[in-house]
Automatic annotation (TrEMBL):
UniProt cross-references to InterPro entries, sorted A to Z: Biofilm_formation_YgiB (IPR009576)
Species per Swiss-Prot/TrEMBL record: Dyella soli
Keywords, sorted A to Z: Signal
Protein name, as recorded: DUF1190 domain-containing protein
One Pfam match: DUF1190
Span of the signal peptide: 1-21
Entry superkingdom: Bacteria
Length: 182
């Protein structure tokens, strides 16, 4: 009986240490959706990074955009005035929606942002819902329904032009909070 009490006390005292060790392995990512470089700079305080993210997203937009054979086909999913003729990197013409926003995401370690960031284009369909290329397809390898090529789109739940959202991956990934700029 004494042996089991001692073992239980040892386990109870070691549990906080084990949980603390798990916290160091968590993956934190902060991410934001912005409609302009100005709104991004207002939320993050870093205009240079926002401009780089916008430029990179714009360059990727033609590659990852849903592609349609005609403007009418594009307008079934996106507003008519958002559909335009575009060219992919191979010079092939297609109709697709114009980029409506861009994402910035950055990994964090011990609560501080790490060097470097990821960014990508975002589109808004005719129902007002935001979409982005499915990160699981690696860009243009997916197929968007109703189009002939382009990336598979996934819905976006982020609210544009707000403070960047911090999410936790891995163990205990159900956490989410807002950061206060910077």
């Amino acid at each position: 009986m004494k042996r089991s009490r001692t073992a239980a006390l040892l386990l109870m005292s070691a549990t906080p240490l084990l949980l603390t060790a798990c916290q160091g392995d968590e993956d934190l990512t902060r991410e934001g959706l912005f409609t302009s470089v100005d709104s991004c700079a207002a939320q993050t305080g870093d205009r240079a990074t926002c401009q780089q993210a916008f430029d990179k997203s714009q360059a990727e937009a033609a590659k990852d955009a849903p592609q349609f054979a005609s403007r009418e086909e594009c307008a079934k999913n996106y507003d008519w005035d958002r559909c335009a003729e575009q060219k992919d990197s191979g010079g092939h013409s297609f109709f697709g929606p114009m980029m409506a926003g861009f994402f910035i995401s950055q990994m964090m370690r011990n609560g501080s942002p790490m060097a470097g960031f990821n960014s990508g284009p975002a589109w808004r369909n005719s129902a007002g819902a935001w979409q982005r290329p499915d990160p699981g397809t690696g860009g243009a390898s997916g197929v968007y329904s109703g189009s002939r090529a382009g990336a598979k789109m996934v819905p976006v739940t982020a609210t544009p032009d707000r403070a960047m959202t911090v999410t936790r991956g891995g163990f205990g990934s159900s956490f989410g909070s807002r950061s206060a700029g910077g």
